[in-house]
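Subject: Protein record for review, amino acid sequence with backbone structure tokens
How to read it: Take the token row as a discrete description of the fold.
Enclosed: The protein record, placed directly beneath this head.
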Amino acid sequence: MELGLRGKTAIVTGGSLGIGRAIARELAQEGVSVAIVGRDAARLEVAAAEIARETNARCVPVPADLTDAAQLDAAMTRAQAVLGHVDILVNNAGATPMGRIGDTPDETWMKSINLKLMGYMRCARILTPAMRQRKWGRVINIIGRSGHQPRPNYITGSAVNASLLSFTLALAAECAPDNVLVTGINPGPIATPRWDAVVAQGAADMGRSAAQENAAAIATVALGRLGTPEECSGLVAFLCSDRAGFITGTNIDIDGGGTRCI
């Protein structure tokens, strides 16, 4: 399927690992010039070089700690300067640790809110005005199914993700008249380094081995397996294209049939 994305530009936060890296690579394969943003400068350099080599597209590393508003502002300014303008924003940076309410201090709550909720909001607030002026843009928020399927041992992530589900729909309604489409994606269990960390934390909470915790998570998936980052990135590329030009203001689960709420 020809997506018609060649010549577009994108920022992917959390773009050096896992789902974010797969999204950056997928967009680059479609001819999109990509800036990847993350905290680990060395890892970003390696990821950007590998993506550029694999796809023959431009991929630029932009290191920043997105919990810091000043660093986030500087990263968005640099990315815009390097790319010329930004057509696509993929908000993906944000990993909230497992934990129940009694085990989760204020610092953990505030870090999660600042990185994921405020980080997504700040990036969108900076980038959407120019998209709206050009009458074309895409904002894809990578959120997580716990926002509408909350868990007590992931209470911070559940709360932050629920906020982002609402934020996505509200932003979509505001931007729709200017042809800036905003959608959310809720990954379920996806085989990434982040998933390995979640499994380890969950195993410790439940008092069982990592293998048992992983098996328990897979048992909630109708397809009976973990997903892959590429099964997320393909949808993102489609949503960025004009083939998806009538899709906005919705949140889509990629979880192998694991979410059964209406």
